[in-house]
Design a protein that fits this description.
With 199 residues, this protein is of the alpha/beta class. The protein has a domain at 15-56 and 104-197: 3-Layer(aba) Sandwich (Rossmann fold), CATH 3.40.50. Helix content is 20%, strand content 24%. Belongs to the 5-formyltetrahydrofolate cyclo-ligase family.
């Protein structure tokens, strides 16, 4: 699988991305051969960019092996340090020693999640890395949004074309949270009514 230059540029012209004010995104890991999010996230964080700091960005930090992951706010890529799995993640404290804002404790909704995965299908199945981190987190977030009466965020997975498998191959269990849309270099696949309504 080769990296595709320009991938992020074309797909993040995406309406959903442009419209989002608060997003949760993964920090891509080359070893895991994930779609690169570094360029688009640097742009989100760059004060000189077209988007400025108009968007709040929260990224994952794994807390333990018990499926606990938090999404912490970062303001610069320098907020990230490598963890034991070689994935960049935010330190719990910012440069001034203050606890970073956690998305489940904030008072406004997230519009968009950019999700990683090993494989996906057109019915919204996502095969993660077996940690259950995202499924657990997404379930918690969706419950919070329900309690607060917020719109549910759009769950968009970033995929290489070869990671999109035929229907019925990816196993699902009751805890799997389906995705709303798939974005690959060959285009956008809206899946849920929410994605179709917002395209
Ligand atoms: N970029 C990124 N960040 C992420 C995730 C992710 O999938 N991608 N996660 C999503 O949950 C969480 C971390 N979970 C992870 C779980 C396993 C492996 C991993 O390296 N798995 C190896 C096999 C390891 C082993 O079994 O020894 C692999 O898949 O090759 C990485 C991240 C939170 N952050
Ligand atoms: N919300 C949840 N509550 C309880 N157990 C869960 C929940 N979500 C996932 N699990 C359990 O965690 C384990 C791993 O889940 P799964 O294989 O779906 O992870 P994954 O989707 O591959 O990983 P990730 O979500 O981190 O990308 C499974 O045993 C699953 O039943």
């Amino acid at each position: 699988m080769t990296a595709r230059p320009g991938y992020s540029k074309c797909n993040f012209e995406l309406f959903w991305f442009k419209e989002s004010k608060r997003l949760c995104a993964y920090i891509s890991c080359a070893q895991l051969r994930e779609v690169d999010t570094s360029k688009v996230l640097s742009e989100v964080l760059s004060p000189n960019s077209e988007h400025g700091h108009a968007k709040d960005l929260y990224v994952p930090r794994v807390e333990d092996k018990n499926r606990n992951m938090r999404m912490l706010k970062i303001t610069t890529m320098d907020d990230l340090v490598k963890n034991s799995m070689n994935i960049l993640e935010p330190s719990p404290l910012d440069a001034s020693g203050n606890a970073r804002e956690e998305v489940l404790s904030t008072s406004s909704p997230v519009d968009l999640f950019l999700l990683p995965g090993q494989a996906f299908d057109r019915t919204g199945r996502r095969l993660g890395r077996g940690g259950g981190y995202y499924d657990t987190f997404l379930m918690r977030y969706q419950e919070l949004a329900k309690e607060k009466g917020w719109d549910q965020p759009l769950l968009v997975a970033l995929s290489y074309s070869v990671q999109i498998l035929e229907e019925g191959i990816i196993p699902v269990n009751s805890t799997d949270v389906p995705i709303d849309a798939l974005v690959s270099s060959s285009g956008i696949i809206p899946i849920s009514p929410a994605a179709l309504a917002r395209i």
